[in-house]
Specification:
Blueprint: E1 2-5, H1 11-20, H2 30-39, E2 43-50, E3 53-62, E4 67-74, H3 83-96, E5 103-105, H4 112-120, H5 137-145
Parallel strand pairs: 4-5
Antiparallel strand pairs: 1-2, 2-3, 3-4
């Protein structure tokens, strides 16, 4: 198994894995998220590849002060193998090699199992509240009409 930066050609397989893992929402286009992440120098999507198949991903990036992780996903066939931990470690290394001293992530409030996973890796509640606003009114209406899963 290798963990390496994915290319734009991996957009479809990554989006499928993210959808199957319950990470996508109707108001986010995962393919667009993927393409944006792999097109810049301040972000990447790292993929765990076995026999040319992507079995895990983590999107990583930074804004100059903090690193961020998104879309950590592991194929069902590889869950429980330590792959999620390895992907987090690779994302942390990616951030650290760019001189960024801190990495953060967001977890949906109802996702207690994922919160426990990250707590086991040393992540703690930072005591901050994340606020957001859709700038596109159509996306805002879609968000309001679609319950979170």
């Amino acid at each position: 198994m290798q963990i390496l930066p994915l290319s734009p050609d991996h957009a479809e397989v990554a989006a499928r894995l993210w959808s199957e893992s319950g990470l996508t929402r109707p108001w986010n286009d995962p393919r667009a998220d993927f393409r944006m992440a792999v097109s810049g120098s301040a972000s990447a999507v790292l993929g765990a590849v076995v026999d040319d198949a992507v079995v895990g991903t983590v999107m990583v990036g930074h804004e100059g002060h903090r690193g961020w992780m998104y879309y950590l996903a592991v194929a069902p066939s590889h869950r429980g193998s330590g792959l999620g931990r390895r992907l987090v470690e690779e994302a942390e290394r990616w951030v650290e090699t760019r001189g960024i001293p801190k990495v953060m992530l967001m977890i949906r409030a109802e996702n207690e199992a994922v919160a426990r996973f990250y707590e086991r890796l040393g992540y703690v509640d930072q005591g901050v509240q994340v606020l957001g606003r859709f700038l596109d009114e159509d996306l805002q209406r879609l968000r309001e009409d679609t319950p979170d899963r």
